[in-house]
Amino acid sequence: MITPSIWFTRHMQALLSALGRVLRRPMASLLTTVVIGIALSFPATLWLLVKNAEQVTGGIAEAVDITVYLKTEVPLEEAEKLAASLKLRNSIDEVTLIPAEQGLLEFRDRSGFGAALDALPENPLPHVLVLRPSTAHSSADEVEALKTDLAGFPEVEAAQVDTQWVRRLAAILQMLEDLFKAIALMLGVGVLAVIGNVTRLEIGARRAEIEVTKLVGGSNAFVRRPFLYEGLLFGAIGGLIALAITQAVMFALDIPVARLATLYGSEFRLAGLGAADAATLLLLGAGLGLAGAWLGAARHLSRIEARG
Amino acid sequence: MIRFERVSKRYPNGREALRDVTLQIGAGEFVFLTGRSGAGKSSILKLVALLERATRGSVTVNGQDTGSLPARAIPAFRRRLGVVFQDHQLLMDRPVYDNVALPLIVSDTPFRDIDKRVRAALDQVGLLQYERALPLELSIGEQQRVGIARAVVARPTILIADEPTGNLDHALARDVMQLFKRFQEVGVTVLIATHDLTLVHEFGQREIHIADGQVIA
Ligand SMILES: Nc1ncnc2c1ncn2[C@@H]1O[C@H](COP(=O)(O)OP(=O)(O)O)[C@@H](O)[C@H]1O
Ligand SMILES: [Mg+2]
């Protein structure tokens, strides 16, 4: 009969004996956990950078405006009506009408062609509408579609938007995200291999004990259990180290990034790992540790049998 | 109770260690397994403890046909058996107490019972004062008795021993045999492989003689 208290006791026993063995060889254990920590900190840091980059560029992509040049013969009232009707669309947040006169004034101020412009018999500039797509419709494809639509209006001479660089940015982000996935996969397999190997060595070192335990009736589960806990511990401690490394990297990057953001007139600050991210990292470490130990134990424990 | 019926054992290297062995040992019996080195004594004990399986024939232990026992049932099967070997297989980095407690720990015995039983077993082999010692701090004879305490601590119904006195001088060997005899007297079936014929004759118990993989008498 296995009562819950015996079940608990034997798991505590396995955990404590695993902890004891981890602590008995502090240097070797430290090396193992640091290797795992560094391996896990790479994808964690990259993931954070991607997430932060998405944050920044999300803000920029929202700021992509469509400039609509009306035909010169379109009168101001019609331009105003058009502006009002466009504003009703879901896909458009804001419409700013820049009347030809205002455009000319601004152009005169900025260009320094004042005298030359004064010489013109009439204002050569058309009325211009500046549209800001709404956040929900600010993907490069949608903005591009909106632009094409607008260009087809009879009052419109031309519509312009520079989605090229938004597309490039999105492509770069996508690539970083793919890179993150590839690195996470590779290093995850690496962590499995490291822990599987630690388990192999540990099983080899404790061969006599395993043989005797099986001789007196220890089940495979009983023999395997301390190794699984050891892998779990290594993985969890490795996850903790990865957490520390990642936060340290983010902390180190925070000040230069903030300075850079200020130069660009932005309030942007780097976001570190949140509580949920941290918990995920720890669980991931522990899970990889457990899985690695399981693989190592499955491979190497079955070869050891009690002998007479 | 142990029964072999027309049992043969061929090792993977082709060596036929047992040929057509039939024998029966009743519950509570004390039996010596004798024969020269290489006769097949250890092979018989390994078949009883399911460290090996018969190539042909059937081995029945405690009414259980071992041939039909799946691998996952072997640990539970071994827990009902006490096993002692010449190479006593103690854990050298663990104190005597831990070595003796191992069979109880693997069988999920509650803690309070473990302590009681380990002390009782150590008391029976006269080593109670050494529970905190490491095996290497003990003499060979004492180490062998630690092995016996470990074999009996879970109160098995069958006790098997392979050359348990192999490394001991005659006086110590007699002490160890007497210890086994005492367990038989409280109802345990005891099967001991030995080539020490002097000792066997001294004890005058039932003897199964093996030669060249076959039962002679
Ligand atoms: N694992 C094994 N593999 C191959 N041959 C073995 C193995 N174990 C024992 N033998 C052989 O089987 C025969 C019987 O051995 P064993 O049962 O150990 O005899 P005993 O214990 O009487 O000395 C011997 O010839 C031995 O070499
Ligand atoms: Mg032998």
Protein architecture, described:
The complex is a heterodimer of chains A (308) and B (217). Chain A has 308 residues and is of the alpha+beta class. Chain A folds into two domains: 4-59 and 169-301, no CATH class; 65-160, Alpha-Beta Plaits, CATH 3.30.70.3040. Chain A is built from ten helices and four strands; from the N terminus they run ααβαβααβαβαααα. Chain A has helices at 4-24, 26-62, 76-87, 100-111, 114-118, 140-151, 164-205, 207-215, 220-263, 275-301, and strands spanning 66-70, 92-98, 128-133, 156-160. Chain A has a four-stranded antiparallel beta sheet with strand order 2-3-1-4. In chain A, helix 1 (4-24) packs across helix 9 (220-263). In chain A, 29% of the residues are buried. With 217 residues, chain B is of the alpha/beta class. Chain B has two domains: 1-80 and 156-217, P-loop containing nucleotide triphosphate hydrolases (Rossmann fold, 3-Layer(aba) Sandwich), CATH 3.40.50.300; 93-155, no CATH class. Chain B has seven helices and ten strands. In chain B, the strands form two sheets. Chain B has a six-stranded mixed beta sheet, with helices on both faces. A four-stranded antiparallel beta sheet of chain B has the order 2-1-4-5, covered by helices on one side. In chain B, strand 4 and strand 5 (64-65) form a beta hairpin. Chain B is globular. The mean pLDDT of chain B is 93. The A-B interface holds A 2, 6, 9-10, 13, 208-209, 211-220, 222, 305-308 and B 42, 45-46, 49, 51-52, 72, 75-79, 81, 83, 85, 89-91, 102-103, 105-108, 110-111, 150, 154, 162. Bound molecules: adenosine-5'-diphosphate and magnesium ion. Residues 41-42, 162 of chain B line the site of magnesium ion (MG).
Taking the alpha carbons of the first and last residues of chain A, their distance comes to: 29 Å
Helical fraction of chain B equals: 25-40%
Number of helices of chain B: 7
Report on the biggest sheet of chain A. Answer: 4 strands, antiparallel
Order of helices and strands of chain A: HHEHEHHEHEHHHH
What structural category arises from helix and sheet content of chain B?
A: alpha/beta
What do the pLDDT scores of chain A average to? 86
Distance between the termini of chain B: 19 Å
Largest interface: A-B, 22 and 29 residues
CATH topology of the largest domain in chain B: Rossmann fold
Bound molecules: adenosine-5'-diphosphate, magnesium ion
